[in-house]
Specification:
By secondary structure, the protein is mainly beta. The chain folds into four domains: 165 residues, no CATH class; 140 residues, no CATH class; 122 residues, Sandwich (Immunoglobulin-like); 85 residues, Immunoglobulin-like. Helix content is 3%, strand content 47%. The strands form eleven sheets. Strands 1, 5, 6, 8, 9, 10 and 12 form a seven-stranded mixed β-sheet that branches. Strands 2, 7, 11, 13, 20 and 21 form a six-stranded antiparallel β-sheet that branches. Strands 14-24-19-16-17 form a five-stranded mixed β-sheet, with no helix packed on it. Strand 33 and strand 34 form a beta hairpin. The termini are far apart.
Length: 561
């Protein structure tokens, strides 16, 4: 066959052009409409099936059987940032659309005893997919929540959502890309809708009511109904503390009012105080499930008081509502706490001065930590200085400063693999699976538990930056630990300290339970490792009875004997 040069070139191009994956966004299979309060039950299969058209009973429609997304990624609005392993894939899906007309708590209650295959569940705010995120895959990019609900009796999962349209997707898990599983999945699920409140209902702005580390208290004394009280972080949505008339938690008065006290104050940042009727439910978000007692709200707070037990202080606010007009009398108050520094995360734990300017020190998670941690250190302007994933051949992390740092405030983020530390603006994203950890720093040890996708912030001081005060070496304790290291092979701690008193000193050690048991009357840890010490540093062994403990606490204390 004779062809022109133009035809030959076109044929050659067609022969060598790669085959591109077909790109399609998710498609809605079933529209559930506006979900009412109460339970809506859904069930079905991810396989293609034919059913009657509800709009035209004489016609049939085909539902399911699509595979428009192989993987799902959390959007920037995800309840917990997530990026599911990109080497895993999902097959056919069934996409449900539903609308919420009001803020709602959603309980996803699985009925999976007779489920076939491996159904997984995703909630999205849109249907968009992207073929470029993972080569050869379409990835849904607007996920806000997911649950695998594996096992014999999977737990109910709860999310709280604002009004809007959402997409509940049932995906059939296909396994690893290298060994794909060809299957469809069946499922049954109860979707329970309960009313909720978001901070959009904030009615009172208290402004700045104190400075960092200033004692604070909040109460509802004077209200004429059974109240509950909660304090949230406005920036992260964390539920910091709540109280419902329990004397052990600080409840005082006639047995129906609530009180929360912070003797050591709060870190600089923005907060929300919520007064609700007994029976309401507080959840991170911050959100409040409505329901319960009604009445007239009286909300008191102390402002710049030196007495943490003061009640009805300078900042008393009285908000009168109309009893019985609402499901629950719920009033929101926003307030701010001034921090010592203008920049930095709004919620952090202050561990004080860890070293003089340009003096060596280190931070690590070696002691008592079993999860895969990551550490990132930022300066006060939000610039990432250094980060570390794995150190010394283990999953834990270490930041070593052999020549120290310049004087100033610094902020340390503790996360689990695969946390991403962006270089500016204190941006920390995509936290990992979470778990318990122990942070070792020159002033001692800090313990915490990271939620999935979560991370904790700590502030530390180098030198004596302007605006310091409170916590660690910046506080008023006459003894300040300046260095603490652990030799895993020899099971020994080496501790150094500075003191404004002459000594001698005791070196004590105990467990978390021992530390919690300390009182002003019995102020000791049970293991005395050394006594009569006059010089720093000193190396002490871990007692045999404490070698199996997951967490240990060491203290340098004045030897009064």
């Amino acid at each position: 066959m004779n062809v022109s040069p133009r035809t030959s070139a076109a044929l050659l191009a067609a022969l060598i052009m790669p085959t591109l994956p077909t790109h399609a966004d998710y498609e809605v299979d079933l529209d559930l409409g506006s979900l009412p309060e109460g339970i809506t039950t859904i069930s079905g299969t991810t396989a293609e099936f034919v059913t009657d058209d509800p709009l035209n009973p004489e016609e049939k429609i085909t539902i399911g059987g699509n595979n428009n997304a192989d993987n799902i990624r959390g959007s920037e609005n995800a309840l917990v940032l997530f990026n599911i392993n990109e080497t895993l894939s999902w097959g056919n899906e069934l996409v449900h659309q539903f609308t919420l007309d009001a803020p709602s708590v959603i309980n996803f209650i699985p009925n999976l005893n007779d489920a076939e295959g491996d159904p997984d569940f995703f909630l999205l705010e849109g249907l968009t997919t992207d073929p470029d995120l993972v080569p050869g895959k379409n990835v849904a990019t607007e996920g806000i929540w997911y649950a695998f609900m594996d096992g014999d009796n999977p737990a109910t999962e709860t999310v709280t959502l604002r009004p809007g349209t959402y997409y509940f997707v049932v995906e059939s898990y296909s396994g690893s890309d290298t060994t794909p599983i060809e299957q469809d999945s069946t499922f049954s699920m109860d979707i329970e809708v309960l009313p909720a409140l978001f901070p959009d209902e904030v009615s009172v702005d208290l402004g700045v009511i104190g400075t960092e580390l200033t004692p604070l208290s909040f109460d509802t004394f004077g209200s004429d109904f059974d109240t509950q009280l909660a304090i949230f972080s406005s920036d992260t949505g964390e539920l910091i503390q709540e109280n419902d008339n329990d004397p052990e938690d600080g409840g005082l008065g006639d047995g129906t009012q609530s009180r929360i006290a912070f003797p050591d104050g709060l870190a600089g940042g923005s907060y929300i105080a919520v007064v609700a009727g007994a029976g309401a439910i507080f959840e991170a978000g911050p959100v409040t499930g409505v329901g319960g007692a009604t009445g007239s709200v009286v909300f008191n707070h102390t402002a710049n008081s030196t007495d943490p037990d003061a009640i009805g202080g300078l900042g008393t606010e009285i908000t009168r509502t109309s009893p019985g007009e609402e499901v629950s009398e719920t009033v929101w108050f926003v307030f701010q706490i001034d921090g010592f520094v203008d920049n930095g995360p709004s919620n952090f734990q202050d561990i004080g001065k860890v070293a003089d300017a340009f003096a060596p020190f280190e931070l690590n998670t070696f002691t008592g930590t079993t999860i895969d941690t990551e550490l990132g250190l930022y300066d006060a302007d939000g610039n990432l200085i250094i980060n570390n994933d794995d150190a010394a051949g283990v999953l834990q992390s270490q930041l070593d400063f052999p020549t120290g740092l310049a004087e100033g405030f610094y902020f340390l983020a503790v996360g689990s693999y695969n946390t991403q530390f962006d270089p500016v603006n204190f941006e920390v994203l995509l936290g990992g699976a979470g778990g318990a950890y122990t942070l070792t720093h020159p002033n001692g040890l800090e313990t915490g538990v990271l939620g999935a996708g979560g991370f904790d912030w700590y502030r530390l001081e180098v030198g004596s930056p302007v605006g310091g005060g409170g916590g660690g070496g910046g506080g008023t304790s006459p003894i300040q630990i300046t260095s603490l290291t652990y030799d895993q092979e020899r099971n020994e701690f080496t501790v150094a300290w500075e003191a404004t008193i002459p000594g001698p000193f005791l070196i004590e050690m105990g467990t978390a339970a021992d530390l919690a048991a300390i009182t002003p009357q019995v102020n000791i840890l049970p293991e005395v490792l050394a006594a009569g010490i006059t010089e720093s540093p000193i190396t002490v062994p871990v007692p045999p009875g404490l070698l199996s403990e997951p967490q240990l606490f060491l203290r340098v204390y004045e030897d009064s004997q």
